[in-house]
Amino acid sequence: MRKLGLLLGAVALLSAEGASAQGAVVRRALVIAHNGSDDPSLPDLRFADDDGVLWAETLQRLGVETTLLVDPDDVTRAGARPVLAGARPPTPDEVKREVARLRAASLADDELGRQTDVLVVYVGHGNTDEAGRAYFTLAGGRLDKASLYADVVDPLAADYTHVIVDACRASGVVGSRGGGTDAAVLAELRGMLAREQLATRPTVGAVFAESDDGETHEWSRIRAGVFSHVARSGLMGAADINGDGRVEYSELGAFVSASLQGVKGLPARLTIHAFAPTGEPRRPLVGPAPRGPSLTLPSGFEHSRISVEDSDGRRLADVRRSEDQYVLLRLPEREVYWIRTPDSEARITLAELSTGVPAMAARELQERGPAEEALRRGLFAVPLDKHFYEQYVAAAGLVPVDLARAFPPAEGGTLPHALLRQPARGWDLGLTALRAPLGLNTLSTGPSVALRLELAPFLYYGVRGTYALTPVARDGFRLHRATVQGLVGTEGLYRTPLFLEAGAGWGVLGVTKGALRMGDPLVLTTHAAAGVMAKVSGLRLRLAATLSADRVTLNGKDYWDPSYGVELALRR
After folding, report:
1. What pLDDT is recorded for position 426?
2. Residue 522, H or E segment
Protein backbone atom coordinates (compact mmCIF):
# COMPACT_ATOMS: atom_id res chain seq x y z
CA MET A 1 0.00 0.00 0.00
CA ARG A 2 2.76 2.45 0.94
CA LYS A 3 4.78 1.70 -2.19
CA LEU A 4 1.68 2.02 -4.35
CA GLY A 5 0.80 5.43 -2.86
CA LEU A 6 4.31 6.75 -3.28
CA LEU A 7 4.51 5.41 -6.84
CA LEU A 8 1.21 7.06 -7.83
CA GLY A 9 2.33 10.33 -6.26
CA ALA A 10 5.65 10.24 -8.10
CA VAL A 11 3.95 9.52 -11.43
CA ALA A 12 1.54 12.42 -10.92
CA LEU A 13 4.26 14.89 -10.01
CA LEU A 14 6.41 13.82 -12.94
CA SER A 15 3.44 14.20 -15.28
CA ALA A 16 2.76 17.69 -13.95
CA GLU A 17 6.41 18.69 -14.30
CA GLY A 18 6.51 17.32 -17.83
CA ALA A 19 3.42 19.27 -18.81
CA SER A 20 4.80 22.50 -17.41
CA ALA A 21 8.16 21.98 -19.08
CA GLN A 22 6.49 21.93 -22.50
CA GLY A 23 5.38 25.54 -22.03
CA ALA A 24 8.43 26.69 -20.04
CA VAL A 25 9.13 30.42 -20.01
CA VAL A 26 12.49 31.96 -19.10
CA ARG A 27 11.76 34.64 -16.50
CA ARG A 28 14.07 37.47 -15.51
CA ALA A 29 13.57 40.51 -13.34
CA LEU A 30 15.05 43.94 -12.77
CA VAL A 31 14.34 45.31 -9.29
CA ILE A 32 15.05 49.03 -8.73
CA ALA A 33 14.73 50.34 -5.17
CA HIS A 34 15.69 53.81 -3.95
CA ASN A 35 14.98 55.52 -0.63
CA GLY A 36 16.24 58.93 -1.71
CA SER A 37 14.39 61.98 -2.98
CA ASP A 38 15.60 64.77 -5.27
CA ASP A 39 12.91 67.08 -3.89
CA PRO A 40 13.99 68.91 -0.68
CA SER A 41 10.35 68.93 0.47
CA LEU A 42 10.20 65.12 0.44
CA PRO A 43 12.07 63.19 3.16
CA ASP A 44 13.81 59.96 2.22
CA LEU A 45 11.84 56.75 2.39
CA ARG A 46 12.55 54.29 5.18
CA PHE A 47 11.86 50.89 3.66
CA ALA A 48 12.21 51.09 -0.13
CA ASP A 49 15.62 49.43 0.12
CA ASP A 50 14.22 46.69 2.39
CA ASP A 51 11.44 46.16 -0.13
CA GLY A 52 14.00 45.87 -2.92
CA VAL A 53 15.86 43.15 -1.01
CA LEU A 54 12.64 41.24 -0.31
CA TRP A 55 11.47 41.60 -3.91
CA ALA A 56 14.78 40.13 -5.13
CA GLU A 57 14.66 37.25 -2.64
CA THR A 58 11.02 36.49 -3.45
CA LEU A 59 11.51 36.46 -7.21
CA GLN A 60 14.64 34.32 -6.95
CA ARG A 61 12.68 31.81 -4.83
CA LEU A 62 10.03 31.75 -7.57
CA GLY A 63 12.62 30.77 -10.16
CA VAL A 64 13.14 34.25 -11.65
CA GLU A 65 16.70 35.31 -12.50
CA THR A 66 16.85 38.65 -10.69
CA THR A 67 19.13 41.70 -10.73
CA LEU A 68 18.88 44.15 -7.83
CA LEU A 69 19.73 47.84 -8.14
CA VAL A 70 19.61 49.36 -4.66
CA ASP A 71 21.58 51.69 -2.40
CA PRO A 72 20.88 50.15 1.02
CA ASP A 73 20.94 52.22 4.20
CA ASP A 74 23.05 51.16 7.17
CA VAL A 75 20.30 49.08 8.76
CA THR A 76 19.56 47.16 5.56
CA ARG A 77 23.25 46.69 4.81
CA ALA A 78 23.81 45.30 8.33
CA GLY A 79 21.32 42.54 7.55
CA ALA A 80 23.92 41.11 5.13
CA ARG A 81 21.36 39.41 2.94
CA PRO A 82 23.06 37.37 0.17
CA VAL A 83 21.21 39.25 -2.60
CA LEU A 84 23.07 42.42 -1.59
CA ALA A 85 26.40 40.86 -2.60
CA GLY A 86 25.70 41.41 -6.29
CA ALA A 87 23.58 44.55 -5.96
CA ARG A 88 24.52 47.75 -7.76
CA PRO A 89 23.33 51.34 -7.18
CA PRO A 90 20.08 52.43 -8.86
CA THR A 91 21.63 55.04 -11.15
CA PRO A 92 20.50 55.82 -14.71
CA ASP A 93 23.73 54.32 -16.08
CA GLU A 94 23.25 51.06 -14.17
CA VAL A 95 19.63 50.87 -15.33
CA LYS A 96 20.72 51.24 -18.96
CA ARG A 97 23.53 48.72 -18.48
CA GLU A 98 21.17 46.12 -17.02
CA VAL A 99 18.53 46.72 -19.69
CA ALA A 100 21.18 46.09 -22.36
CA ARG A 101 22.17 42.84 -20.64
CA LEU A 102 18.55 41.69 -20.39
CA ARG A 103 18.00 42.56 -24.05
CA ALA A 104 20.97 40.45 -25.11
CA ALA A 105 19.73 37.55 -23.01
CA SER A 106 16.21 37.80 -24.46
CA LEU A 107 17.52 37.88 -28.04
CA ALA A 108 19.71 34.86 -27.35
CA ASP A 109 16.74 32.95 -25.95
CA ASP A 110 14.67 33.97 -28.95
CA GLU A 111 17.30 32.45 -31.25
CA LEU A 112 16.94 29.20 -29.31
CA GLY A 113 13.15 29.27 -29.57
CA ARG A 114 12.55 30.11 -25.91
CA GLN A 115 9.92 32.51 -24.66
CA THR A 116 11.06 35.21 -22.25
CA ASP A 117 9.25 37.33 -19.68
CA VAL A 118 10.83 40.23 -17.80
CA LEU A 119 9.48 41.76 -14.60
CA VAL A 120 10.45 45.37 -13.90
CA VAL A 121 9.87 46.29 -10.25
CA TYR A 122 10.31 49.85 -9.03
CA VAL A 123 10.07 50.91 -5.37
CA GLY A 124 10.76 54.53 -4.47
CA HIS A 125 9.56 58.13 -4.80
CA GLY A 126 7.10 59.25 -7.44
CA ASN A 127 6.87 62.97 -8.22
CA THR A 128 6.38 65.53 -10.97
CA ASP A 129 8.83 68.13 -12.26
CA GLU A 130 8.29 71.85 -12.81
CA ALA A 131 6.56 71.17 -16.14
CA GLY A 132 4.16 68.68 -14.55
CA ARG A 133 5.82 65.60 -16.05
CA ALA A 134 5.69 62.50 -13.85
CA TYR A 135 8.88 60.65 -12.94
CA PHE A 136 10.32 58.02 -10.65
CA THR A 137 13.44 58.93 -8.68
CA LEU A 138 16.80 57.25 -9.28
CA ALA A 139 20.13 57.84 -7.58
CA GLY A 140 21.38 60.87 -9.48
CA GLY A 141 18.63 60.87 -12.06
CA ARG A 142 15.03 60.35 -12.99
CA LEU A 143 12.92 57.86 -14.89
CA ASP A 144 10.07 59.74 -16.57
CA LYS A 145 7.28 58.46 -18.79
CA ALA A 146 9.32 58.74 -21.96
CA SER A 147 12.41 57.01 -20.57
CA LEU A 148 10.41 54.34 -18.73
CA TYR A 149 9.12 52.99 -22.01
CA ALA A 150 11.79 54.14 -24.48
CA ASP A 151 14.83 53.24 -22.35
CA VAL A 152 13.56 50.36 -20.21
CA VAL A 153 10.40 48.54 -21.31
CA ASP A 154 10.67 48.63 -25.10
CA PRO A 155 14.39 47.74 -25.45
CA LEU A 156 14.06 44.60 -23.28
CA ALA A 157 13.02 42.56 -26.37
CA ALA A 158 11.09 40.17 -24.12
CA ASP A 159 8.00 38.34 -25.30
CA TYR A 160 6.14 39.91 -22.36
CA THR A 161 7.06 42.58 -19.81
CA HIS A 162 5.39 43.02 -16.45
CA VAL A 163 5.80 46.34 -14.61
CA ILE A 164 5.16 46.49 -10.86
CA VAL A 165 5.41 49.91 -9.21
CA ASP A 166 5.27 51.00 -5.57
CA ALA A 167 6.19 54.68 -5.97
CA CYS A 168 5.33 56.72 -2.94
CA ARG A 169 6.23 59.23 -0.21
CA ALA A 170 6.93 58.67 3.46
CA SER A 171 5.82 60.26 6.75
CA GLY A 172 5.80 58.83 10.24
CA VAL A 173 5.52 55.28 11.55
CA VAL A 174 2.78 54.56 9.05
CA GLY A 175 4.34 56.71 6.35
CA SER A 176 3.24 57.29 2.83
CA ARG A 177 4.91 56.95 -0.52
CA GLY A 178 4.11 59.09 -3.49
CA GLY A 179 2.50 62.19 -4.86
CA GLY A 180 0.61 64.80 -2.88
CA THR A 181 -3.07 65.62 -3.07
CA ASP A 182 -2.86 67.76 -6.21
CA ALA A 183 -5.23 66.13 -8.71
CA ALA A 184 -3.00 67.09 -11.64
CA VAL A 185 -0.01 65.40 -9.98
CA LEU A 186 -2.03 62.22 -9.42
CA ALA A 187 -3.30 62.17 -12.97
CA GLU A 188 0.22 62.53 -14.35
CA LEU A 189 1.65 59.78 -12.15
CA ARG A 190 -1.23 57.49 -13.01
CA GLY A 191 -0.74 58.23 -16.67
CA MET A 192 2.72 56.67 -16.63
CA LEU A 193 1.13 53.26 -16.20
CA ALA A 194 -2.43 53.84 -17.35
CA ARG A 195 -4.42 51.42 -19.47
CA GLU A 196 -4.35 53.82 -22.42
CA GLN A 197 -0.56 53.89 -22.39
CA LEU A 198 -0.38 50.10 -22.27
CA ALA A 199 -2.98 49.61 -25.00
CA THR A 200 -0.35 50.48 -27.62
CA ARG A 201 1.91 47.79 -26.14
CA PRO A 202 -0.05 44.50 -26.16
CA THR A 203 2.82 42.58 -24.57
CA VAL A 204 3.17 44.87 -21.53
CA GLY A 205 1.17 44.64 -18.31
CA ALA A 206 1.31 46.69 -15.13
CA VAL A 207 0.30 46.43 -11.47
CA PHE A 208 0.39 49.36 -9.05
CA ALA A 209 -1.55 50.75 -6.11
CA GLU A 210 -2.61 54.18 -4.94
CA SER A 211 -5.09 55.78 -2.56
CA ASP A 212 -7.83 58.25 -3.31
CA ASP A 213 -5.49 61.05 -2.23
CA GLY A 214 -2.62 59.64 -4.29
CA GLU A 215 -0.66 58.03 -1.47
CA THR A 216 0.09 54.44 -0.62
CA HIS A 217 1.62 53.46 2.69
CA GLU A 218 4.62 52.08 4.49
CA TRP A 219 4.22 50.23 7.78
CA SER A 220 7.09 50.06 10.24
CA ARG A 221 5.71 46.83 11.76
CA ILE A 222 6.52 44.91 8.58
CA ARG A 223 9.42 47.18 7.53
CA ALA A 224 7.99 47.47 4.04
CA GLY A 225 5.50 49.22 1.83
CA VAL A 226 2.03 47.81 2.33
CA PHE A 227 1.37 47.28 -1.38
CA SER A 228 4.77 45.66 -1.99
CA HIS A 229 4.27 43.31 0.95
CA VAL A 230 0.77 42.30 -0.14
CA ALA A 231 1.85 41.84 -3.77
CA ARG A 232 4.82 39.66 -2.77
CA SER A 233 2.57 37.54 -0.55
CA GLY A 234 0.27 37.02 -3.51
CA LEU A 235 3.06 36.02 -5.87
CA MET A 236 4.44 33.56 -3.29
CA GLY A 237 1.20 31.62 -3.66
CA ALA A 238 -1.44 33.37 -1.54
CA ALA A 239 -3.08 34.68 -4.73
CA ASP A 240 -2.98 31.34 -6.59
CA ILE A 241 -6.73 30.82 -6.30
CA ASN A 242 -6.93 27.80 -8.64
CA GLY A 243 -3.80 26.08 -7.38
CA ASP A 244 -2.05 25.70 -10.74
CA GLY A 245 1.27 27.13 -9.53
CA ARG A 246 0.91 30.29 -11.64
CA VAL A 247 -0.22 33.76 -10.55
CA GLU A 248 -2.07 35.76 -13.17
CA TYR A 249 -3.09 39.42 -13.18
CA SER A 250 -6.68 38.66 -12.19
CA GLU A 251 -5.47 36.57 -9.24
CA LEU A 252 -2.92 39.10 -7.99
CA GLY A 253 -5.32 42.02 -8.45
CA ALA A 254 -8.12 40.22 -6.61
CA PHE A 255 -5.81 39.14 -3.78
CA VAL A 256 -4.40 42.64 -3.22
CA SER A 257 -7.89 44.12 -3.41
CA ALA A 258 -9.25 41.60 -0.88
CA SER A 259 -6.26 42.11 1.43
CA LEU A 260 -6.72 45.90 1.46
CA GLN A 261 -10.51 45.78 1.61
CA GLY A 262 -10.80 45.79 5.39
CA VAL A 263 -8.30 48.57 6.17
CA LYS A 264 -10.13 51.36 8.01
CA GLY A 265 -8.99 54.40 9.97
CA LEU A 266 -6.29 55.60 7.56
CA PRO A 267 -6.40 59.02 5.86
CA ALA A 268 -7.19 57.42 2.49
CA ARG A 269 -8.29 54.13 0.96
CA LEU A 270 -5.81 52.02 -0.97
CA THR A 271 -6.78 50.84 -4.46
CA ILE A 272 -5.14 48.28 -6.74
CA HIS A 273 -4.75 48.74 -10.50
CA ALA A 274 -3.95 45.64 -12.56
CA PHE A 275 -3.68 45.89 -16.34
CA ALA A 276 -2.98 42.54 -18.00
CA PRO A 277 -1.19 42.44 -21.39
CA THR A 278 -3.89 42.74 -24.03
CA GLY A 279 -1.97 40.33 -26.27
CA GLU A 280 -2.41 37.53 -23.72
CA PRO A 281 -4.66 38.57 -20.82
CA ARG A 282 -3.98 35.36 -18.90
CA ARG A 283 -0.20 35.64 -19.13
CA PRO A 284 1.07 34.79 -15.62
CA LEU A 285 3.46 37.09 -13.81
CA VAL A 286 5.20 34.06 -12.27
CA GLY A 287 5.00 30.39 -13.17
CA PRO A 288 5.57 27.09 -11.39
CA ALA A 289 8.33 27.61 -8.85
CA PRO A 290 11.32 25.31 -8.34
CA ARG A 291 11.57 23.16 -5.25
CA GLY A 292 12.43 25.08 -2.11
CA PRO A 293 11.13 26.20 1.29
CA SER A 294 7.33 26.03 1.26
CA LEU A 295 4.63 26.33 3.90
CA THR A 296 1.54 24.19 3.33
CA LEU A 297 -1.76 25.50 4.72
CA PRO A 298 -4.25 22.74 3.89
CA SER A 299 -7.99 22.95 3.55
CA GLY A 300 -9.43 22.47 7.00
CA PHE A 301 -6.46 24.13 8.77
CA GLU A 302 -8.12 25.86 11.71
CA HIS A 303 -6.34 29.24 11.34
CA SER A 304 -7.46 31.67 8.66
CA ARG A 305 -5.07 34.62 9.03
CA ILE A 306 -1.40 33.63 8.93
CA SER A 307 1.82 35.66 8.91
CA VAL A 308 5.34 34.39 8.26
CA GLU A 309 8.39 36.19 9.69
CA ASP A 310 12.06 35.36 9.88
CA SER A 311 14.17 35.35 13.05
CA ASP A 312 15.11 39.03 12.47
CA GLY A 313 11.45 40.06 12.54
CA ARG A 314 11.13 40.68 8.79
CA ARG A 315 7.61 39.93 7.62
CA LEU A 316 7.91 37.62 4.62
CA ALA A 317 4.29 36.88 3.77
CA ASP A 318 0.69 37.18 4.95
CA VAL A 319 -2.48 35.42 3.87
CA ARG A 320 -6.12 35.37 4.85
CA ARG A 321 -7.75 32.10 3.78
CA SER A 322 -11.35 31.02 3.46
CA GLU A 323 -12.34 27.89 5.33
CA ASP A 324 -12.07 25.47 2.39
CA GLN A 325 -9.00 27.05 0.78
CA TYR A 326 -5.58 25.45 0.51
CA VAL A 327 -2.50 27.65 0.16
CA LEU A 328 1.11 26.82 -0.63
CA LEU A 329 3.47 29.68 0.24
CA ARG A 330 6.89 29.51 -1.41
CA LEU A 331 9.18 31.28 1.03
CA PRO A 332 12.64 32.84 0.68
CA GLU A 333 15.18 30.64 2.39
CA ARG A 334 15.81 31.27 6.09
CA GLU A 335 17.21 29.10 8.85
CA VAL A 336 14.23 29.83 11.10
CA TYR A 337 10.64 30.90 10.40
CA TRP A 338 7.98 32.20 12.77
CA ILE A 339 4.43 31.26 11.75
CA ARG A 340 1.96 33.59 13.47
CA THR A 341 -1.78 34.07 13.74
CA PRO A 342 -3.54 36.80 15.76
CA ASP A 343 -3.43 34.62 18.87
CA SER A 344 -0.85 31.87 18.29
CA GLU A 345 2.60 31.21 16.86
CA ALA A 346 5.10 28.49 16.03
CA ARG A 347 8.87 28.51 15.53
CA ILE A 348 9.92 26.25 12.64
CA THR A 349 13.39 25.57 11.31
CA LEU A 350 14.10 25.20 7.60
CA ALA A 351 14.44 21.44 8.05
CA GLU A 352 11.09 21.25 9.87
CA LEU A 353 9.18 23.37 7.34
CA SER A 354 8.26 20.45 5.07
CA THR A 355 7.28 18.02 7.84
CA GLY A 356 3.62 19.07 8.05
CA VAL A 357 1.20 21.56 9.51
CA PRO A 358 2.81 23.63 12.31
CA ALA A 359 1.67 23.14 15.89
CA MET A 360 0.64 26.57 17.14
CA ALA A 361 1.06 27.91 20.70
CA ALA A 362 -0.40 31.02 22.35
CA ARG A 363 1.17 34.43 21.63
CA GLU A 364 0.76 38.04 22.74
CA LEU A 365 -0.05 40.97 20.45
CA GLN A 366 2.26 43.96 20.66
CA GLU A 367 1.12 46.38 17.92
CA ARG A 368 0.16 49.82 19.26
CA GLY A 369 -1.17 53.15 17.98
CA PRO A 370 -4.27 54.04 15.91
CA ALA A 371 -2.66 53.68 12.48
CA GLU A 372 -0.90 50.48 13.52
CA GLU A 373 -4.20 49.20 14.87
CA ALA A 374 -6.00 50.09 11.63
CA LEU A 375 -3.51 48.12 9.58
CA ARG A 376 -3.27 45.23 12.02
CA ARG A 377 -7.03 44.76 12.16
CA GLY A 378 -7.87 45.63 8.57
CA LEU A 379 -5.01 44.34 6.45
CA PHE A 380 -5.71 40.80 5.23
CA ALA A 381 -9.09 40.91 6.98
CA VAL A 382 -11.01 39.78 3.88
CA PRO A 383 -10.23 36.34 2.39
CA LEU A 384 -9.76 35.85 -1.33
CA ASP A 385 -12.58 33.37 -1.89
CA LYS A 386 -14.34 32.41 -5.09
CA HIS A 387 -17.16 34.95 -4.64
CA PHE A 388 -14.78 37.87 -4.06
CA TYR A 389 -12.57 36.81 -6.97
CA GLU A 390 -15.46 36.60 -9.42
CA GLN A 391 -16.80 40.00 -8.34
CA TYR A 392 -13.36 41.60 -8.65
CA VAL A 393 -12.65 40.15 -12.09
CA ALA A 394 -16.03 41.29 -13.39
CA ALA A 395 -15.53 44.83 -12.03
CA ALA A 396 -11.92 45.09 -13.24
CA GLY A 397 -12.61 43.68 -16.70
CA LEU A 398 -9.86 41.05 -16.41
CA VAL A 399 -9.88 37.53 -17.84
CA PRO A 400 -10.49 34.99 -15.05
CA VAL A 401 -8.49 31.85 -14.39
CA ASP A 402 -10.04 28.38 -14.62
CA LEU A 403 -11.72 27.69 -11.30
CA ALA A 404 -13.04 24.27 -12.27
CA ARG A 405 -10.65 22.56 -9.86
CA ALA A 406 -10.42 25.27 -7.22
CA PHE A 407 -12.16 25.34 -3.84
CA PRO A 408 -12.72 21.59 -3.51
CA PRO A 409 -15.50 20.30 -1.25
CA ALA A 410 -12.96 18.04 0.41
CA GLU A 411 -9.40 18.48 1.55
CA GLY A 412 -6.38 18.13 -0.70
CA GLY A 413 -4.56 19.71 -3.61
CA THR A 414 -4.18 19.52 -7.37
CA LEU A 415 -1.55 17.32 -8.97
CA PRO A 416 1.23 19.95 -8.77
CA HIS A 417 0.38 20.37 -5.09
CA ALA A 418 -0.37 16.80 -4.18
CA LEU A 419 0.64 17.26 -0.55
CA LEU A 420 -1.85 20.08 0.17
CA ARG A 421 -4.08 18.33 2.63
CA GLN A 422 -4.96 17.97 6.29
CA PRO A 423 -3.06 15.09 7.90
CA ALA A 424 -5.31 12.10 8.63
CA ARG A 425 -5.58 12.04 12.39
CA GLY A 426 -8.35 11.91 14.96
CA TRP A 427 -11.12 9.83 16.44
CA ASP A 428 -14.01 8.55 14.35
CA LEU A 429 -17.28 7.58 16.02
CA GLY A 430 -19.58 5.58 13.79
CA LEU A 431 -22.58 3.36 13.30
CA THR A 432 -22.36 0.14 11.30
CA ALA A 433 -24.94 -2.04 9.58
CA LEU A 434 -23.83 -5.37 8.08
CA ARG A 435 -25.01 -8.80 7.17
CA ALA A 436 -25.19 -10.94 10.28
CA PRO A 437 -22.44 -13.52 10.85
CA LEU A 438 -22.75 -17.23 10.21
CA GLY A 439 -24.91 -16.73 7.13
CA LEU A 440 -28.04 -15.62 8.96
CA ASN A 441 -30.45 -13.76 6.69
CA THR A 442 -30.66 -10.61 8.83
CA LEU A 443 -28.71 -7.49 9.76
CA SER A 444 -26.34 -6.73 12.60
CA THR A 445 -25.97 -3.13 13.79
CA GLY A 446 -23.86 -1.39 16.36
CA PRO A 447 -21.26 1.31 17.13
CA SER A 448 -17.69 1.63 15.95
CA VAL A 449 -14.78 3.72 17.13
CA ALA A 450 -11.45 4.27 15.38
CA LEU A 451 -8.28 6.28 15.91
CA ARG A 452 -6.37 7.14 12.72
CA LEU A 453 -2.89 8.72 12.66
CA GLU A 454 -0.78 9.88 9.73
CA LEU A 455 1.97 7.51 8.61
CA ALA A 456 3.11 9.45 5.52
CA PRO A 457 1.43 11.88 3.10
CA PHE A 458 -1.89 10.30 2.14
CA LEU A 459 -1.20 7.21 4.26
CA TYR A 460 -2.45 6.53 7.77
CA TYR A 461 -2.49 3.80 10.38
CA GLY A 462 -4.66 3.24 13.40
CA VAL A 463 -6.86 0.98 15.43
CA ARG A 464 -10.58 0.23 15.11
CA GLY A 465 -13.07 -1.37 17.48
CA THR A 466 -16.62 -2.48 16.69
CA TYR A 467 -19.55 -4.14 18.37
CA ALA A 468 -22.64 -5.38 16.56
CA LEU A 469 -25.64 -7.53 17.38
CA THR A 470 -28.73 -8.70 15.57
CA PRO A 471 -31.49 -6.38 16.86
CA VAL A 472 -34.18 -8.89 15.92
CA ALA A 473 -33.86 -12.40 17.40
CA ARG A 474 -34.25 -15.34 15.03
CA ASP A 475 -35.88 -18.33 16.72
CA GLY A 476 -34.92 -16.69 20.01
CA PHE A 477 -31.23 -16.51 19.07
CA ARG A 478 -29.22 -13.31 19.04
CA LEU A 479 -25.72 -12.98 17.53
CA HIS A 480 -23.02 -10.70 18.97
CA ARG A 481 -19.77 -9.69 17.26
CA ALA A 482 -16.93 -7.57 18.73
CA THR A 483 -13.62 -6.82 17.03
CA VAL A 484 -10.37 -4.94 17.62
CA GLN A 485 -8.28 -4.41 14.49
CA GLY A 486 -5.18 -2.60 13.32
CA LEU A 487 -5.65 -0.38 10.25
CA VAL A 488 -3.70 0.99 7.31
CA GLY A 489 -5.22 3.19 4.64
CA THR A 490 -4.99 6.07 2.22
CA GLU A 491 -7.19 9.14 1.90
CA GLY A 492 -7.30 12.49 0.10
CA LEU A 493 -5.01 11.41 -2.74
CA TYR A 494 -4.98 13.84 -5.71
CA ARG A 495 -7.51 16.14 -4.09
CA THR A 496 -10.31 13.62 -4.03
CA PRO A 497 -12.60 12.94 -1.06
CA LEU A 498 -12.06 9.19 -1.37
CA PHE A 499 -10.40 6.78 1.04
CA LEU A 500 -9.47 3.10 1.09
CA GLU A 501 -8.38 1.05 4.10
CA ALA A 502 -7.75 -2.49 5.28
CA GLY A 503 -7.27 -4.06 8.69
CA ALA A 504 -6.90 -7.27 10.61
CA GLY A 505 -7.15 -8.31 14.24
CA TRP A 506 -8.95 -10.26 16.92
CA GLY A 507 -12.67 -10.82 17.35
CA VAL A 508 -15.28 -12.51 19.49
CA LEU A 509 -18.44 -14.17 18.16
CA GLY A 510 -21.23 -15.01 20.59
CA VAL A 511 -24.73 -16.48 20.58
CA THR A 512 -27.35 -15.89 23.26
CA LYS A 513 -30.81 -17.37 23.81
CA GLY A 514 -32.41 -16.68 27.12
CA ALA A 515 -29.90 -17.88 29.76
CA LEU A 516 -27.84 -19.73 27.13
CA ARG A 517 -24.38 -18.24 26.42
CA MET A 518 -21.85 -19.65 23.95
CA GLY A 519 -19.22 -18.27 21.63
CA ASP A 520 -15.72 -18.26 20.14
CA PRO A 521 -13.33 -15.76 21.82
CA LEU A 522 -10.39 -16.34 19.43
CA VAL A 523 -11.61 -15.32 15.99
CA LEU A 524 -9.20 -13.99 13.35
CA THR A 525 -11.00 -11.13 11.66
CA THR A 526 -10.26 -8.92 8.65
CA HIS A 527 -11.71 -5.62 7.44
CA ALA A 528 -11.73 -3.61 4.20
CA ALA A 529 -13.54 -0.37 3.44
CA ALA A 530 -13.82 2.20 0.67
CA GLY A 531 -15.76 5.41 0.78
CA VAL A 532 -16.02 9.15 0.66
CA MET A 533 -15.36 12.01 3.11
CA ALA A 534 -17.47 15.16 3.23
CA LYS A 535 -18.21 18.15 5.42
CA VAL A 536 -21.92 18.66 6.09
CA SER A 537 -23.11 21.60 8.24
CA GLY A 538 -19.60 21.85 9.69
CA LEU A 539 -19.44 18.13 10.54
CA ARG A 540 -16.74 15.94 8.99
CA LEU A 541 -18.36 12.65 7.94
CA ARG A 542 -17.07 9.38 6.48
CA LEU A 543 -19.40 7.08 4.54
CA ALA A 544 -17.96 3.65 3.71
CA ALA A 545 -18.90 0.36 2.13
CA THR A 546 -17.33 -2.39 4.22
CA LEU A 547 -16.34 -5.99 3.70
CA SER A 548 -15.22 -8.18 6.58
CA ALA A 549 -14.35 -11.84 6.97
CA ASP A 550 -14.04 -13.89 10.15
CA ARG A 551 -12.19 -17.20 10.50
CA VAL A 552 -14.72 -19.29 12.41
CA THR A 553 -14.99 -22.88 13.51
CA LEU A 554 -18.37 -24.52 13.00
CA ASN A 555 -19.11 -28.22 13.38
CA GLY A 556 -15.38 -28.87 13.75
CA LYS A 557 -14.47 -27.14 10.50
CA ASP A 558 -12.63 -23.83 9.94
CA TYR A 559 -13.81 -21.51 7.20
CA TRP A 560 -14.04 -17.80 6.31
CA ASP A 561 -17.37 -16.15 7.03
CA PRO A 562 -17.74 -13.01 4.86
CA SER A 563 -19.99 -10.08 5.68
CA TYR A 564 -20.66 -6.81 3.87
CA GLY A 565 -22.28 -3.59 5.02
CA VAL A 566 -22.08 0.18 5.41
CA GLU A 567 -20.65 2.53 8.03
CA LEU A 568 -21.31 6.22 8.74
CA ALA A 569 -18.79 7.90 11.04
CA LEU A 570 -18.24 11.35 12.52
CA ARG A 571 -14.64 12.55 12.76
CA ARG A 572 -13.77 14.56 15.84
Report:
1. 74
2. strand 516-536
